[in-house]
Amino acid sequence: MLTLGSGSKSLNREINAWKASSQGSTARSLFSAFCDALDKGADPLTGGVPQIVSVDRNSPGKVLGFVADRQRYLHGLPIGYSPALTSLEWVDPLFNRMSAETLDRLSGAQHQVRDAPTVPGGIGRFFRSSGKSK
Question: Fewer Cβ neighbours under 10 Å: the N or C end of the chain?
Fold first, then answer.
């Protein structure tokens, strides 16, 4: 895995922490490491919530919504609920599949867990510290 940019040092630290976990060999561990690096704020030039797209062999790319701290984010911005949002896939920092309506894990969705080290906080901390409300 090649990481570049101002946040690469903190991202690599989180990737290594996740490699030591039972999920270390999964793609979702890389995503969770990315979320952890953003959350910890070690790089002053990197922040906010992830802006996520999914690309696979069988379909064109698609935008995914993100749920953190009981808030919906789309394209990195907080967004209120609309029934139209249910047509998108929603994930949390552990890549659990989430409901756009309830902000809970989807019924029947596999439960992803954390066994990599973390620090207290939350991605919403970015918005609180920058003076923006959730």
Answer: N
Query: For the chain, which residues make up each domain, given as ranges?
Result: 1-47, 48-107+122-134
Tokens of 47: 């922040």
Total residues found in the chain within this entry: 134
Reported as a single tens digit per residue, the pLDDT across 96-119 is 999 999 999 999 998 888 775 554
What is the distance, to the nearest Å, from the Cα of residue 17 to the centroid of all Cα atoms in its chain?
16
C-beta of residue 114 within 8 angstroms of C-beta of residue 39: no
Measured torsion, CA atoms of residues 87, 99, 53, 121, in degrees rounded to the nearest 10: 160
Q: What's the rounded Cα separation, in Å, for the pair 125 and 131?
A: 10
The two tokens of residue 29 are 């561990």
Predicted confidence (pLDDT) at residue 133 exceeds the cutoff of 70: no
Q: Which residues on neighbouring strands pair with residue 65, listed in sequence order? A: 90
